[in-house]
């Protein structure tokens, strides 16, 4: 059997493996039943659905003919580095880094850092658009997590908030 779409085949394989891992991991918790769900019910069902979706995508990649076989290109190292770096920067800015005496900078600064660094992963970078996006994300996150959910996040750096 010949793979007719490499992208779909490997995406389906990734979904199937991830779904199976979630489903297997969920069995270590009490699953329960539909009427009385345990803590493992949702991850088990999510893993099963993800695995089935992956199996369907794999099947489709073997059946549906594509124009050039949709070959997988080279790794996009630059975007991958910026996205991973943005997430690490978010964690460091939000919680601080005591080993180098960096205090927590708060959620607002962390969201701005995350947004600006992750925007560098794309082909185009417009600082004005990114600043607007970061402001909207910061305001929305503040409303959702601090105001509505009443979670205790450091919102501003300690040298500003006290």
Automatic annotation (TrEMBL):
Q: Which Pfam families match?
A: TctB
- Superkingdom of this protein's organism: Bacteria
Q: Which residues cross the membrane?
A: 9-29, 41-63, 75-96, 102-121, 130-149
Q: Which UniProt keywords apply?
A: Membrane, Transmembrane, Transmembrane helix
InterPro entries reported in the protein's UniProt record: DUF1468 (IPR009936)
The molecule here is called Tripartite tricarboxylate transporter TctB family protein
Please verify whether the record's keywords include Calcium.
Answer: no
Instruction: List, for all copies, the residue spans of the domain called DUF1468.
Output: 10-154
Q: Is-annotated flag, keyword Membrane? A: yes
